[in-house]
Design goal:
The complex is a heterotrimer of chains A (451), B (170) and C (1001). Chain A is mostly helical and 451 residues long. Chain A contains 16 helices and no strands. The chains are: A mainly alpha (451), B alpha+beta (170), C alpha/beta (1001).
């Protein structure tokens, strides 16, 4: 232990301390601050419900839709949340396969974030369609009219990709949680014990359980890895498969995946930097971990930088006046501000992370992460809505001004996400107890370091 | 643990190497049906127990294959079931169905893996075997089912390998 | 009928009666229906031969303006649901303008009053019974002591004669009144030839047309007929086309269709005409030359802003073309020099030898007594020498400037009666309102031209409790007796028939009943036009004096009649309000047009509300910046700014007449006679425009080519190259190779299920050299397909539902280059590789076996992906239950039962009028034959006065549409997208070079 104590990727506590520190985050009495936070989120959820009810009653026209912009704030926010949902599985699956140890400290929180983000995103396809009450027609269920959905439509691919992703990422979260819930179970009493016992599915940590568990986790990771990459590719094909100038790009899949991970890590930083303070687990999630997250951000941010540049290059190189007009207007058209906020917030701001000082400075990271969130929302807004303002037939060009109904749903979606996350981190181990313990060598009688 | 009581000896270890030695010796002396509790997966202990690799991967494999088949099968069949031309494309446009085939492979694959964990873990019932909350914390637990007659011998082995606490549970 | 007086709209009982009527009169026109039409007479007889679901057609006459076009009324279960042109009628020959088609919305207008109304002590209107109403009228008329006056806006007809006789018998006077009365032309013709009548013009024969401010494609004259003629002469055919030049300060829709627009200052048009006449006369050695000698091009050049060379060139081209045609008399040139202008044009026509060739006299009849007689009538009212005034089919208190204090004079009349079915400005001032019947509810006729009289027959039970004014007068006569006792017919229908007895006699018809039935079935009496053969030489020349303008403002104020609202009677019809103005593309609003330079000078942006001050008044309206107007002129459309006239018209926009003086110098209202000054308000109101980007950006949406290339049979592409212009966006060589035969390869894969076997394949072709942008097709589409109107607020968000829109693009107009305009009707292109289809997750959008791009409303969940992926953006989404608000009762009675009324949250679009296709196919199947080419017509093709749209089965090599598609001018929009659209556009053709240097080429 002493030998490797300086390796920052390894925890410094003993098993007992780990259990104690994590269980404490659950057993401590919630502060007033916590109730205020949860209350705010709950209020925003009411805003969401209220707005949606109004839309159901009067129609989508309440939102600022203005043809030819048929997709605007709702689809933008949908893609935004789906993107956020990509950090979790990346960290829990891909980095797991890469055996990168630093993931253990943050993966539970990111995984939770992932699941809730996808749950949020999942609302939007329903909110945004014209006849929300028959959204289930997109599901291939047997019916006496023998009407099946059209599997050639990228929207159908979406249905499958999103539902698969939601299932698999929740599976990941639950599987990882079971042993930790068992640990909590063994440290609480009374009605709580009953609940956690039920949730722990009779986990005892017996060899016969670990044997299948650790294997299965490996395969799940192996399956989830291509899934992460596929989901946002499919989402990007919603646009790339169309012929709308500004959508119809072959680089969309990697471009969107990079963007998704970028925005996901951004949101992780936004959430975890304050969280570790609130939960007093700074010693478990250290600046070392943020440094790694920041590097990941820098990497994906740079891919975005390249993609932005490439989009403009192709527009010029293709010689298609339609593409050229679209991209010219993106930078210098009536909505230039949106275009530039996307480029600045994503491509430029991420480049600050080349400096170790900034990567290790949590305040700086937090500020940057806010920029990333804003920038990534704008990226989707620009790509989706602004491309629609000017396509083939000039006579049909238009502009769009979102209304309260757009903002209500957007704000509400943050509430919906936030409420789930707030409830989660106070009731479940936000740091993966058993995985951290896996990293801590157990004491031995015969001293002499590891094995 | 209201269920049928399994008589035996439950020992707790602080040190992983001691626990492993104990497990090996007991196994050698014919106690095959041990139950070892750890708070986290641990390779040494796995090695000491020496069970073969979990067959859960078969669930993953077949799940994946079924998912893939289902993905392409349903899309193609449903498209042909009521042929409608869209965008001048052929009715069963395979390239378009790859996305769905792929997603279903993953979906069924991972769900069956989870099913794998549950089914396989349930194959060995732990009912009636004692357990201590410290196992989910920092101690390693070893339970040896045995009649009262042989308990003394088992206890000796466990203590000799540094068990910090031995309970004869008969 | 008290119960119905209370009920809103139409209750069940009334509806059943409605069924009854047409049940009785079920007649299918093709069968020429004699004995059936006769059955119309017994109204309430339920008939067995009414087949629900089968439309019944009646012939009738359009009374929306004085042109009196013939219409076919399509009724279903007793309800008129569509008006289409009567092919036999000489004026409109089967097509119909927007205003005519919108007649249905005055029939079913929700603001029609439910019965006769009288003003009570409190000064409010009460519904009363008809007997009571007629009694009151009779009492007042008999006690009026001859001091009776009638204002009659209805054209020459049995009724108008009857009304005049009736009033005369009472010792009163009748004034026939029409706001756009063309008085100046009459006077001018009188001065020139001693004939105070109007000419009709043969645009079809003219090879060179010069219009001096006469909007013959919008509101001046029988526009449908004139547009048909214009399309025939100016549309490209057999390698040639006529030339049209427009002279005036503003580019109207007519000017936009001209090859050259000479934007001379208001008032100087006459100089151009005179100078042209002078040149033409001297070239042709006409006797007129002498009297015109003083008006040489050089002499007039300065005042017109044109060069002598331009005028000479124009005149020579005019003289060279034979026959040519010059016209004047439109409202935009109705300034104080209007008579001289018309005289000058008369001389020009005479010098060019057009009289009797393109300018035909001895054909027009009746017409208005003119503004002067109205003014004197109102003077009499002001002096209190009128006891009773009857206002029929006219709204003078709106249509005459407030400056004239006419309302005050009118108020002096003790008893004022209006027959308005909707309370308009005039009716609102009356004491008794006797709602008259709509043209589709009554027996009537309309005499529009020598030998042409249209008949009207009731094709529907009166929607509300109206009564034909003729019947009212006859009933009243019984009470009044005395001088009017002689009007003792049983009903006006009887009187109409007896009047037609005489006609029958003139026609030497044997059996009257037979003659009458034939006339009804045909829609009236249509004798061919017989112009006067002999014609007197003109009397001397014109003495031109520069017209004066009231006020000292910097800008000449030019109010012009809107092609949708006409004199204001169209403003209560949502179809006309939502159908954008063809030039500005503004809906539901009024606006002030000013030149970009002017706007820059006074520093206003589009949408800023400005105040226009004239000596006679002030109005506030928002600015629309328009390069098609002189910098020293400001224009506004007429017809808006009603203070009454129903929910749609009231308080909508402002009335441009408020800036005009009512002073009548020369027998007409000089519309262009004030100067205005502008003050900014810095208030803004969004302009409800429906055009996004008004320039084509070289995308070849609406293509055009020079005449010389078209004549050589070049394609637009070749013409571009030949003309050294950049070709439009197209696929590169490689891309071409890549998609080579791709579509056919795909077709092989698509031969499955119902798609096997041979089906017809529907296609369309649009000739842009014929399309004038008049937008009649758009109204037809609204009427046929139950398209909801969404209103101004929704148009702000560009949510209009126009399945078919006329796209309007500017060409040039910047720096000093002439402004050009392009129009193209754009509907769903029914692509064979439709991008909208594969993206729909539920197959709501799919391809039918006969090549239509189907849209299944019931299946649509509203993802709107299809619209995003549609390169033409011709899919429309119902955002807010428009279907609930667009048709307040009884407007909903107009809905076409063959077309779904789309719900909220559903995508909808042009279907190529699939219901009309299926109807013909079914008939053909029942008759065991194949449908004939031309039998199937989309609503737009049917309505188009220019005949610019052709539709049919493109698998039938003989079909007209196939011939059109073979035309080398043909192109498909956005070919580069390889969507294989089914609509071919034939490029517009431009003259090689402008003669006066102010046109594009």
């Amino acid at each position: 232990m002493a030998v490797i104590a300086h390796d920052p990727s390894l925890p410094t506590q003993t098993h007992a301390e780990v259990t104690r520190d994590v269980v404490r985050t659950i057993t401590d009495k919630p502060t007033t601050g916590y109730y205020i936070l949860a209350g705010t989120m709950a209020f925003l959820v009411l805003v969401l419900l209220g707005t949606f009810t109004a839309i159901l009653k009067y129609g989508l026209g309440l939102a600022g839709y203005s043809p030819p912009i048929m997709w605007s704030v709702y689809i933008t926010t949908f893609v935004f949340w789906i993107g956020i949902g990509h950090a979790g599985t990346l960290i829990s699956a891909i980095l797991y396969l890469f055996r990168s140890r630093w993931r253990t400290a943050v993966y539970r929180s990111t995984e939770a974030m992932t699941v809730f983000a996808v749950m949020t995103a999942g609302l939007f396809p329903i909110i945004h369609i014209g006849r929300q009450w028959i959204f289930y027609w997109l599901i291939p269920y047997p019916n006496q009219r023998f009407l099946w959905p059209n599997f050639k439509s990228p929207l159908m691919w979406d249905v499958f990709a999103i539902s698969t992703y939601l299932t698999v990422s929740s599976t990941f979260l639950v599987i990882g949680l079971v042993p930790d819930i068992a640990a909590v179970r063994d440290h609480v009493s009374g009605w709580k014990k009953k609940i956690y016992s039920a949730l722990s599915l009779g986990w005892t940590g017996a060899d016969s359980q670990w044997r299948h568990y650790s294997r299965a986790y490996l395969y799940l990771a192996a399956l989830a890895t291509p899934l992460v990459l596929s989901v946002h590719s499919v989402v990007s094909w919603d646009f790339a498969m169309s012929i709308v100038p500004g959508w119809h790009g072959t680089i969309f899949a990697p471009y969107f995946v990079a963007g998704a991970i970028y925005s996901g890590i951004g949101m992780v930083l936004t959430l975890v930097i304050p969280l570790r303070k609130v939960l007093k687990i700074e010693h478990m999630i250290t600046s070392y971990h943020f440094d790694n997250l920041a590097k990941l951000t820098l990497f994906t941010g740079s891919i975005l930088f390249y993609a932005y540049g490439m989009e403009y290059f192709i527009a010029w190189y293709s010689g298609s006046t339609f593409e050229q007009t679209t991209f010219w207007r993106r930078a210098f058209g009536p909505n230039w501000w949106a275009g530039w906020s996307m480029i600045i917030c994503n491509a430029f701001v991420s480049q600050l992370l080349w400096f170790k000082k900034i990567r290790r400075n949590l305040t700086a990271l937090f500020v940057i992460s806010i920029f990333i969130n804003i920038g990534m929302w704008f990226e989707r807004w620009v790509i989706i809505s602004m491309s629609l303002t000017n396509d083939y037939v000039p006579y049909a060009w238009g502009q769009i001004n979102p209304t309260w109904a757009d903002w209500g749903i957007l704000a509400g979606s943050f509430g919906w996400f936030g409420l789930w996350f707030t409830l989660f981190y106070k009731n479940f181990p936000i740091v993966a107890i058993q995985e951290i313990k896996e990293l801590i060598p157990m004491p031995r009688r015969s001293h002499g370091g590891g094995h | 643990m209201a269920a049928r009581h399994v008589p035996g000896v439950l020992a707790q270890f602080d040190h992983v190497d001691g626990a492993c030695d104990a497990i090996r010796e007991l196994k050698a002396t014919g106690y095959k049906d041990l139950t070892v509790y750890t708070a986290a997966a641990n390779h040494e202990i796995e090695a000491a127990i020496g069970d073969p690799i979990s067959p859960v991967r078969l669930f993953t494999l077949f799940g994946g294959i079924i998912g893939c088949a289902a993905g392409f099968g349903t899309t193609i069949w449903m498209s042909r079931d009521w042929p409608l031309i869209v965008g001048g494309k052929s009715v069963a446009a395979i390239p378009a169905f790859v996305a769905i085939g792929f997603e279903l492979t993953i979906l069924v694959g991972s769900l069956s893996t989870v099913a794998g964990i549950i089914i396989l873990s349930m194959r060995k019932s732990l009912k009636g075997r004692p357990y201590s909350p410290r196992f989910s914390d920092d101690r390693i637990g070893v339970f040896v089912p045995c009649g009262a007659d042989r308990a003394a011998q088992v206890e000796r082995v466990l203590v000799q390998h540094g068990s910090v606490e031995v309970v004869r549970d008969a | 009928m008290a119960d119905e007086a209370e009920t809103q709209g139409v209750d069940r009982r009334q509806f059943l009666k409605v069924i009854g009527v047409s049940g009785a009169g079920a007649a299918v026109l093709s069968g020429c229906t004699t004995e059936r039409v006769a059955k119309l007479v017994p109204y309430m007889v339920q008939s067995e031969d009414q087949v629900p679901g089968v439309p019944t057609w009646y012939a009738s006459t359009c009374a929306e303006c004085s042109s009196g076009c013939g219409v076919y009324v399509k009724t279903r279960e007793g309800r008129p649901i569509k008006l289409e042109g009567n092919p036999d009628h000489p004026t409109n020959a089967g097509s119909l303008c927007s205003r005519g088609q919108a007649g249905l919305q005055s029939l079913y207008n929700p603001d029609r009053i439910k019965g006769p109304m009288a003003r009570n002590a409190k000064g409010e209107f009460d519904l009363i019974k008809w007997d009571d109403a007629i009694a009151r009228l009779a009492a007042k008329l008999s006690s009026a002591g001859g001091k009776v006056a009638a204002i009659n806006g209805y054209g020459a007809s049995t009724f108008s004669t009857f009304l005049a006789d009736y009033v005369t018998a009472l010792g009163g006077t009748t004034v026939a009144y029409e706001p756009f009365g063309r008085e100046a032309e009459r006077t001018a013709n009188d001065r020139t030839w001693g004939k105070a009548e109007l000419a009709s013009y043969d645009f079809g024969a003219a090879r060179h047309i010069v219009s001096f401010g006469a909007d013959f494609l919008e509101t001046w004259g029988p526009v449908v007929e004139q547009q048909r003629g214009f399309a025939a002469s100016h549309g490209f055919h057999d390698g040639t086309m006529a030339r049209m030049v427009f002279v005036g300060p503003r580019m109207s829709l007519t000017a936009a269709n001209a090859d050259e627009w000479l934007n001379v200052p208001a008032g100087s048009e006459a100089l151009v005409a005179l100078a042209m006449a002078q040149v033409v006369a001297s070239r042709k050695g006409s006797p007129l030359a002498a009297s015109l000698a003083s008006y040489t091009p050089d002499a007039v050049a300065k005042d017109t802003g044109l060069t002598a060379a331009q005028i000479t060139a124009l005149a020579e081209a005019f003289a060279a073309a034979s026959p040519s045609l010059a016209i004047a008399g439109g409202i935009p040139a109705q300034h104080r020099g209007a008579i001289e202008l018309c005289q000058a044009v008369n001389l020009l026509n005479e010098a060019a030898g057009n009289i009797g060739r393109t300018v035909l006299f001895g054909t027009t009849v009746g017409g208005s007594d003119g503004y002067a007689s109205m003014v004197s009538l109102f003077d009499k009212m002001g002096q209190g020498s009128v006891q009773v005034v009857l206002v029929h089919d006219a709204n003078p208190l709106y249509a005459m400037p407030k400056d004239g204090k006419f309302a005050a004079a009118f108020a002096k009349v003790p008893f004022k009666v209006s027959t308005a079915a909707i309370i308009d400005e005039t009716a609102a001032q009356c004491d008794l309102i006797l709602p008259s019947l709509h043209a589709l509810e009554r027996w009537d006729d309309l005499h529009t031209r020598a030998g042409v009289t249209g008949l009207m027959q009731p094709v529907v039970q009166p929607v509300f409790q109206g009564m034909h004014f003729g019947d009212v007068l006859l009933k009243a006569a019984k009470t009044i007796a005395g001088p009017v006792a002689k009007f003792n017919d049983a009903s006006f229908e009887a009187r109409l028939k007896s009047a037609w007895q005489k006609v029958a006699a003139e026609q030497k018809a044997g059996d009257f009943d037979e003659f009458w039935r034939m006339a009804l079935g045909r829609g009236g009496l249509f004798a061919p036009m017989a112009p006067a053969p002999q014609f007197p030489a003109s009397k001397g020349a014109v003495s031109y004096t520069k017209p004066t303008f009231d006020g000292t403002g910097d800008y000449v104020f030019l109010p012009y009649p809107s092609s949708m609202y006409h004199d204001g009677r169209g403003t209560n019809k949502p179809w006309l309000l939502e159908n954008p103005d063809p030039i500005t593309k503004i809906t539901w609003q009024s606006w002030v047009e000013m030149h970009p330079d002017t706007a820059a000078k006074i520093d206003v942006r589009e949408g800023e509300i400005v105040e226009l001050h004239s000596p006679h008044g002030m109005i506030r309206s928002q600015v629309y910046i328009y390069a098609g107007i002189r910098p020293d002129t400001m224009a506004m459309p007429l017809g808006l700014g009603h203070t009454a006239y129903g929910r749609y018209a009231k308080d909508r926009g402002v009335n441009a007449l408020d800036l005009l003086g009512a002073a009548d110098g020369q027998g007409f209202l000089p519309y262009v006679s004030t100067r205005v000054s502008v003050t900014r308000t810095e208030d803004y109101r969004k302009v409800a425009r429906v055009d996004g980007m008004p320039r084509q950006l070289g995308r070849g949406i609406v293509q055009s080519m020079a005449l010389m290339y078209a004549a050589k049979g070049m394609t637009p592409e070749e013409a571009y190259k030949a003309g050294g212009r950049a070709p439009v966006e197209e696929n590169t060589e490689l891309e071409q190779k890549a998609i080579e035969g791709w579509h056919d390869a795909q077709l092989e894969n698509t031969k499955v299920g119902n798609y096997t076997g041979d089906h017809p394949k529907w296609g369309m072709a649009v000739d842009l050299s014929r399309c004038t942008g008049c937008s009649a097709c758009v109204t037809a589409c609204y009427a046929e397909n139950n398209i909801p109107t969404v209103g101004e607020e929704q148009v702000f968000r560009r949510r209009e539902m126009s399945w078919l829109r006329i796209e309007r693009y500017w060409e040039g107009g910047e720096a000093n280059e002439p402004l050009g305009v392009r129009f193209a009707p754009v509907m769903c292109q029914h692509c064979n590789n439709a991008p909208c289809e594969p993206v729909c997750p539920v197959y709501a959008s799919y391809h039918t076996v006969d090549g239509l791009n189907g849209q299944v409303y019931n299946r649509c969940v509203g993802t709107r992906y299809c619209s995003n992926n549609c390169p033409f953006k011709v899919r429309y989404f119902n955002w807010l239950k428009y279907n609930d608000v667009a048709w307040p009762e009884p407007l909903n009675l107009q809905l076409n039962p063959d077309v779904t009324v789309r719900a909220r949250g559903v995508m909808e679009k042009c279907t190529f009028c699939v219901q009309r296709i299926r109807a013909v196919q079914n008939t053909a199947r029942i008759e065991g034959r194949d449908f004939k080419d031309g039998e199937i017509m989309t609503a737009c093709a049917q309505a188009c006065p220019s005949g610019a749209i052709s539709f049919g089965n493109i698998n039938d090599p003989a079909a007209k549409v196939v011939q059109w598609k073979k035309d080398p001018r043909g192109y498909v929009m956005l070919e580069g997208t390889n969507v294989q659209s089914s609509v071919t556009y034939l490029a517009k053709v431009l003259h090689d070079a402008p003669v006066a240097g102010r046109g594009e080429s």
